[in-house]
Design brief:
With 128 residues, this protein is an alpha+beta fold. The protein contains three helices and six strands.
């Protein structure tokens, strides 16, 4: 019997449109795909460098998975689509739901995101 390697993941979740509904959708769907997911506290954040002044709800999560990076990202894209995310929305600063894989094992995939205040603050909850 082959033992599947467990990969550690750090995830960022964000929404500035219909925030409560979209964040709850992300939490529910991620919990289905990643049974050991730990969700950090939700943070209300101000947009930076966007035309839309709507605040964000941001949250970090950590989990483990046997899935590849691409498989994890594909799950995130499907959940974003469930929230009604459209590529054209980004131009108007409408972020219905954004789920990013920040770290996969020891590989930092979103180096610039790791410098954002809400991520630095959210990491204080986690032991990585």
């Amino acid at each position: 019997m082959k033992v599947m390697k467990q990969h550690r993941c750090l995830i960022s979740i964000g929404s500035n449109t219909n925030r409560d509904v979209n964040i709850k959708l992300a939490q529910k769907e991620l919990s289905i795909h990643f049974q050991d997911i730990y969700l950090g506290k939700e943070q209300d954040t101000i947009p930076i460098g966007m035309s839309n002044p709507a605040h964000f709800t941001n949250q970090l999560a950590k989990c483990s998975t046997t899935l590849s990076i691409d498989e994890v990202k594909n799950i995130f894209k499907k959940i974003e689509s469930q929230a009604g995310r459209l590529p054209a929305d980004k131009i108007d600063g409408i972020i219905k739901l954004d789920i990013d894989l920040l770290i996969y094992d020891n590989l930092v995939l979103k180096e610039n995101d790791m410098k954002k205040d809400f991520i630095i603050e959210g990491l204080k909850e986690f032991e990585l």
